[in-house]
Amino acid sequence: MIKRYGVEGGKGTGGQALPFAKAVAADGWLYVSGQTPMVDGEIIDGGIVAQSTQAIQNCLDIMTEAGFGKEDIVHMKVFLSDARYFQSFNKVFKSFFSEHPPARVCCVADLVVDCMVEVDLTCFNAKFKS
């Protein structure tokens, strides 16, 4: 069975409706769509630390809504708009995941939203396996 989260209310910059689910669960797996440092459809002010914190928290909020915990995170993808943000992002990452660090990839990309960072998560929990 496939369950989609956030299809009915995802909002992007300027309040536009987003054409994808915030997350999709299938057979114990949860795929959280890329999250930017957005609150109420607007990118938050602040530098890479504030934006990284918000982007990760947005992923965790979606994951928690679906019933998953930090210990269920298998992999994170990180997209930074500038390689100079790498060390600062790592400090934020470590503050969230010191006990259960997931596997991770981090790359520099030209983001389609005017922000410094975007992250997504892949989670697994056998209790949701069909």
UniProtKB/TrEMBL annotation:
Residue spans crossing the bilayer: none
Gene3D superfamilies the UniProt entry points to: RutC-like
EC number: 3.5.4.-
An example Gene Ontology CC term for this record: cytosol
UniProt KW NADP keyword: no
Coiled coil regions, renumbered to chain: none
UniProtKB keywords: Hydrolase
Enzyme class label: hydrolase
GO molecular function: deaminase activity
Record keyword Hydrolase present: yes
Family label: Belongs to the RutC family.
Record protein name field: Enamine/imine deaminase
Organism in which the protein naturally occurs: Leminorella richardii
